[in-house]
Amino acid sequence: TPPQARPLLNEDRSIFSTKGHPKANGLNLTIAYPRGWVAKEGVRPHVVQTFINEGSPALESAMVIVNDLGLAEGTTLTEKEMLEALAPPELRKALPAGATLLSVQTTRIEGIPAGSLEYRLRGERAGMVLYLQYWKLDFVAGGSLVTVLFSVFSPNDSSQAAQQMAKFRPLFTQMANSIVLPDKWASP
Each residue of 66-101: b (16+ CB within 10 Å) or e? Predict the structure, then answer.
């Protein structure tokens, strides 16, 4: 079985926790990622952690991003408010300029409403042209908007990026399903 299709069994995975991380806005979240991937703190202000398959030509990666929603202390969004904010028409508004929408839907992470947005984008950086494909999951937890962003890229064309995403989608799905919000399940 190719590594990207194998289940994230205990011996094949590492666990990252945002607990106590200064960029996590007090959010306690855990996510599993493949043991062979490199985990690094994100360079940008809201990127808590990046997980990278450095040995791969498609440089598959996942990011955990936490943005404070600026809610008043003790305020939480209702399920109805979360469903409205994460409805497909709202998610489409987050599509970057020039991106091609592949899919958009409302789903759930840890039993709470989440939005799923998949898109393809042609980008340029330092004179290089890159074709990127992203799968973005958004949900609200602890007064923050949490984004888990999975990506692959190809220096050649968008069809190669699509092939890499198809190959790694089972792993990315396992990573998304490994997300736990421990405080949600703690006894009062």
Answer: beeeeeeeeeebeeeebeebbeeeebeeebeeebee
